[in-house]
Amino acid sequence: MRLYLPLEGTGPLRTRLYEALRAALMDGRLAPGEALPPSRGLAAELGLGRQTVVDAYERLIAEGFFEARRGSGTFVSASLAGLDHAADATPAAIGPGRHWPPLPAWGGGERRRFNFAGGVTDRRLLPWPPWRAAVQRALRDQAHDRAPYADPQGHGPLRGGIADYLGYSRGLSCRPADILVTQGAQQGLDLLARVRVAPGDVVALEEPGYPPARAVFAARGARLVEVPVDERGVRVDRVPPDARLLYLTPSHQFPLGMPLSLERRLALLEFARQRDLLIVEDDYDGEFRFQGRALDALKSLDRHGQVAYLGTFSKVWNADLRLGYLVMPAGLRGALLQARALSDGASTGLTQIALAHFIHDGHFARHLRRMQRLYEQRRQRLLAALARHQDLWTVLPQVAGIHLALTFNRAVPDVRGRLAAASISAEPIEAFYQNTPARTGLLLGFGALDDEDIDAAVAVLARACGEPARE
Ligand SMILES: Cc1ncc(COP(=O)(O)O)c(C=O)c1O
Q1: Which residue segments constitute the domains of the chain, with CATH numbers given?
Q2: What is the pTM of this model?
Q3: pLDDT at site 210
């Protein structure tokens, strides 16, 4: 038998020989029951010491791939007859269960010259020196802490910092014990879906709405019902009476931008109380407000534990940290804590401790104030640039958050193709509808747009959207 046994790579020769023999087995070059060359002969052929070959053979014998027959040598184990060889193995024989629907892909996309991507911020603007100091302090703290695992509910001082912050920023009074620290708002959604929604349950969502939230409930096997929004936010009168859960973005409707009116907030809370409905309030960027003080969180009006409040540090700090939080309604507290412990145990301790220091030392509040001023200027500049092309589009009112939406005044065919050709990252609002929208338009994020790019970016956008369609 002549076997091709490449011994390339680094590491001990006995390991490389073992791997080469194993590869020959896996792709069928060594057949079950076949005799292997005597160790001395193979060693001479490969220019190796005999012991190297003996070690590799012994390892394969110990693992059951080879068998030693006293007096007659070493053989490929006969029990490998059932092994599929790499060349004829069928890939993807295992698929997801029947409950797992094909989910639409969303977000990401290539980087383009002008960045109107929604929901992203510019990490270069973070105050890195105090953050570095906070992380170093957290490392020192951990060196003296013997607890091997972080608290599944979240680091106590961080929960305290979040509770204070929600009080002054969102008018929401809650205790650290009501807060569950999560891996971003997305995990909060997933946990709520697990503890509240069974396959077949009705879940109501805004139309248009946030695709990753929809995807979580779809993956749960829920029956999804779209509830339209108008200029005062979600149409409370259209929420199905049998809904178990309603997901909504009351501060800054995603993607259109309007807040939910106070009248509707009160009507919704009353409806929820009568119908045993859980309202999930996603307050993803409500802390950035323009034109005076906008409405506080819907949760601040909740007297009967009907609202689960989702917050995130992705927009106000750094999405890469994957830190968010849930203000848990009392009735779901125990189930949510269990679900969290079962899911991934807890969020990483180090970043939680560092963020707690960062908040307690006042750096977070300072950063927020700075970003608020910066976003306000950027937004004004963007609005002024957009106003130069009023024939093309109508900008929808927006009083909070880091994106705005516009609708086209006339049909603009193949918007995606036009954006790509002009090297612009932006999302058509149709992408957020399940049904055919009455209007077409764009979501324009300004969290990562360079200030000096704004005028040029809008001019390029106007040219791209204003050109007649190409044949
Ligand atoms: C509506 C909405 N909710 C939540 C989030 C934040 O998600 P996460 O905290 O998982 O980063 C985003 C981010 O784009 C968003 O647009």
Answers
A1: 13-82 (1.10.10.10), 126-364 (3.40.640.10), 366-466 (3.90.1150.10)
A2: 0.85
A3: 95
